[in-house]
Amino acid sequence: MTTLVVGNIPPPVDGAGMVTKQAINFMEEELRLRVEVFDPFDERRSLRSILVYLKAALRIAKPDVDNLYIQGVQGERMFFVLFLLVVAKIFRTPAVHHHHAFKFIDSPSLLWRAICSRRFDVSHIVLSPSMGQRMESEYGNPNWNFVSNAAFVCDEFIESRGSSADQELDDLVVLFAGVAGIGKGEDIVIEAVRRVRSETGQPIKVVLAGRDHTTSEDFVEVTGVLNSTQLAERMSRASVFALPSNYAPEAAPMVIYEAAARGLVSITTARGCLPEMSQELRGAVRLAEPDVTVLAEVLLTELAGARRPSIAIDFDKARSQAINRFAKLFTPDSEATELSHVLLAQLVGAQYRSEVFSLAANLGCDFVWGDQHFQEHILSTPSMPGVSPRVGKNKFFFGRRLVWQTRSFRKMLTVTTLVIEANPRWLNSVLVTLARKSLGRHTVFWGHFDHHGDAGNFRRFVRKAYQRLPDCWMAYTESEAIRFRKSGLESVAAPNPLPPCSDPGFVVSGDGEDLLFLGRIDENKGLDVVLKAIASGSEETQLHVVGDGPSRLDAIELAAELGIADRVNFHGFLPCSEELHSIMKLCRAIVIPTYVGLNLTQAMAHGLGALVNSECSHSPEIEVARRFPEAVIEHDGTVVDMCEAIAELPSVDGTPKSAALIRAAYGSNQWLNGLTKACSKRASGGSTNCTHSRSTSLQTRKSESVNGTTNAEAL
Q: According to DSSP H, which parts of 66-165 are helical?
């Protein structure tokens, strides 16, 4: 597929130039479209511009052109856009027109009426729903598509963005980014900060980024224009971002989404799309008017604890939705994506993944797995709704250090796309991937970037060599996907999905005082450490153990030996039901003594806080904990430190807001989208000119959820 892009691509500093460049990167990198760029907007060479338009028109006539993508323009260039739309209509080429400002609505003209009329097969991209509604009202054309600029934020603003530590008073920084002198409000920011400094005595600083700023104030730093990396670094050190704009043609500034990607609170005004942006990013603060007194009052409130990791979750959701909408304009069949060419191979078929595997099966995905894991007590589930896997026997060697799976190699070798659990100790994954590479077949590994960060040199060498085998990696988190890409490896994020729940609306009130242990009970889960900590701590602490496993009887005996049998309740394995919910209502937090897993996301998605082991950095869900520091207490896995963490329990604040954000980010469709995207990343034989890769995925066909069981059974 070929898309012709007609638009302005200056250096990606700000505005439409950055959006254009990132949109092209996405089309090439993620949608695997062949992009040809025609850039006629050099006003100093008008003859060349005309020739470029004519060349683009001739190219539209070629049969291999599937789409025309036009950036919003003004002035006499609108004649040429209208000319291209006429040519596209003649040759029945769908066109997408991307508007970057309100001028086509605020200043309607005959040319705009022609371009925005329903006579052409044009899909119009607008920056907010209100912009689309105004367009429909002005021109009578309902064919508008809301794609927020969140879709085009550079990866620099997302990489390594974890939760910031509490900032000291002398580190309070108000960041402003914009062009000086056009009403963006830098003077209001400076005056408001001066008042706050005078009233409180706090050494608050202002950083002005952008063109043409000058000041003599000693508390103001002027940086000039910053590139993406520099601005992202400044945002990571700021306390709040302020843009009290009174700029008349204000639209949807990229910098608001860039700040949100870093978890930074934005203070804006009711101009252009800013009100809708503040609704989309719920942690943003909107001022009715760009007033110094009001801004000073807001700063006094926001500077105390402005960094809100949940804003980054809001941004992720907005970005994913925007990417999906943009993708559907150029690949309209993406919503009906089939997985009939895909085989998903696992060591075992875990029950807690029944819902997502059933969803993938509904799209045609096939499965193979073995009978048991390296740990003998972890067995495949006997059945999953809608899933009919080929089940082989796992044969172990060298003291269960290596495994070979029977009845699966041939099927793994011949399928069009293989998605296989990444484990170098699984001999099938190594041998079948090498064979598939020689045949030019697409292989995806699903696993961690670095499962054993403290491994010796030889094991690290083996893992790095192993990482080079597949065509693409399906990582558990966005941060892991970024680490893969930094190492030169193709990667997408497919978050480990929440277990299915019979009551997705259930959220605890946060009034409970007990602790919850949720998951399998075996020797490497550390329940013994929790019991010893309970015995050494307050006599009022109650523990609810939900789950089963080979070490359950040992744990019951240990509780009796420690004299806390009356304070530890063993409930066994429970499906996600009213009984489990009633237990959660008694609890304030989940306690996780070793590595975290789905038990963390399941508990936090229901509003509980968490006591987590900070030493287990390879666990993918640790990223969730670090996005919500107000809901998490960290410990080092020892009895003494866990006792101290339990003593801090009243300070844990698991909230319904956090629960909703986690559910949005870790739902089944998020994983399914990652799977679909990884399977679509086929080696095309061509190269791209992309400098940034994307991590959100195309939207797949909606499928009904299948009821299953939970409790992180096989974690």
A: 77-90, 103-106, 110-115, 129-139
